[in-house]
Amino acid sequence: MRGNLDLGGTNITALPGGLSVGGNLDLCGTNVTALPDGLSVGGALDLWGTKITALPDRLSVGGGLDLRDTDITALPDGLSVGGYRDLNRTKITALPEGLKVGGKIFGGPKPPRGSIGAEAARTLRYLVVR
After folding, report:
1. Global pTM?
2. pLDDT confidence band for 107 (50 / 70 / 90)
3. Which residues, in sequence order, are CB contacts of 3 under 8 Å at separation 6+?
4. Confidence of residue 109 (pLDDT cuts 50, 70, 90)
5. Which phi and psi angles does 66 have, rounded to 5°?
């Protein structure tokens, strides 16, 4: 689908398989517990305050990824995030080797060497390590 998909604060519990959103996907505060395999989001993916505990393989996020206040414990191998990544108040303790982040990093453990984009490398002073 083209454009943004704002489902934040709704009673939705699941998304259809093969979903592709050209803009932002907002699921904050929903009862969604899992994302479909192969989900593609051209803009930002906002999962703040959801009940999601894991991210699917082959997840593609062109913008930022907000995981604040989720019970996610790990990120999938090969995850690529074009913008910022916010891991504040998550249960993530390690980052995968293939992680690519194009923007600022907020919260969570220190990323593996060489795995972040140029903008993120310039802005590591914003990294908050618990």
Report:
1. 0.81
2. confident
3. 21, 22, 23
4. low
5. -105, 110
